[in-house]
Structures are given as C-alpha cells and as structure tokens.
Amino acid sequence: MNLPANIPVSTIMSTQLVVLNTTDGLEKAERLFKKHRIRHIPVIERNKKIVGMLSLTDLLRISFADGAYEDEEDIETVIYDMFTLPQVMAKNVKSVSPKTTIREVAELLAKEEFHALPVVQDGDLVGIVTTTDLIRYLLSQY
User: Fold this and answer.
1) Which of 56, 83, 95, 141 could pair with 39 as two cysteines, CB 3.0-4.6 Å apart?
2) What's the predicted TM-score (pTM) here?
3) What pLDDT score does 55 carry?
C-alpha cells in the first residue's frame, strides 16, 4: 500500500468536539464519556485554549467507573469529590496543527504513549485526532 505522504490531518480529525473546562467536575466527565462513547476529552480554559487532556483511562485509575454500565444514569460521586479535573488530567499536552500530515501524526502516536492529539490553530482548539481516526483512514485506503 502506497499512501500519499502529504495529506493534512484536518481531513480526518474530529471537529464535533466534546470539551471540559478546568472548573468542571469528574462526574460530568464520566457522563460525557458514556454519553458520547469517547475515550478522550480536551480540557480548555478561556474559550478554546487547551490546558490538558482527560482520558477515560485517567478516570478509571481513580474510580470504579465501568463501561459495562454505560446506560446507568446514577454515578457514584464520592471518589470524584476527592479530586479536581486539573489533578487528574494530563498536562503539557502535545498538539498538532491542521496542516500536520497524517503520516506525522501516525508517527507521533506510534512513538508516544497516548492515543489522541488535540489539533490547534492560532492557539485555539479546532479538532482532535485519535488512533481510531487513523485506523479508519487506513481502512478507507484499501
């Protein structure tokens, strides 16, 4: 398979963003993960300035949140009251621009230990690209 080398990540990134603010609680985060069936949520301040990334794995590390109960509305919040979102989220998040190539994104995700990258333009969050987006793109090339 010989893929084009210069296709920008903007062609495969998700732009329908689910985001959290640093003042949001972890209970809200769990609700968003379940409602949208996603695994990564960018954390922003002042409109679209990204300050962190929360993954479902981060949340699972401190809770008994379980994907098996996706339809359950009641969430046990006691453990969530012990932590703030900034304490749990990943900080110093790497990001890419919409012009970064799909190949460069794939290389970065393959090298690092995370599975999502925020896409930032002029300091503002404009999208997110995940390993799932990359897999879907590769499958579409067959």
Assistant:
1) 56
2) 0.84
3) 94
CATH number assigned to the domain comprising residue 59:
3.10.580.10
Q: Which of 68-72, 110-114, 136-140 has the lowest mean pLDDT?
A: 68-72
Helix (H, G, I), strand (E, B) or coil at 40: strand
Contacts of 57-65 with CB under 8 Å at 24 or more apart are: 58/88, 58/89, 58/90, 59/26, 59/29, 59/30, 59/33, 59/88, 61/88, 62/26, 62/88, 63/26, 63/30, 65/30, 65/33
Q: Which of 101, 140, 104 is nearest to 8 (CA)?
A: 101
Q: Which domain holds residue 66?
A: 9-140
Taking the CA atoms of 26, 27, 32 and 35 in sequence, report the sign of the dihedral they define: positive
DSSP state, residue 33: H
Three-state secondary-structure class, residue 121:
strand
**Type of residue found at 18:** V
Pairing mode, strands 124-130 and 116-121: antiparallel
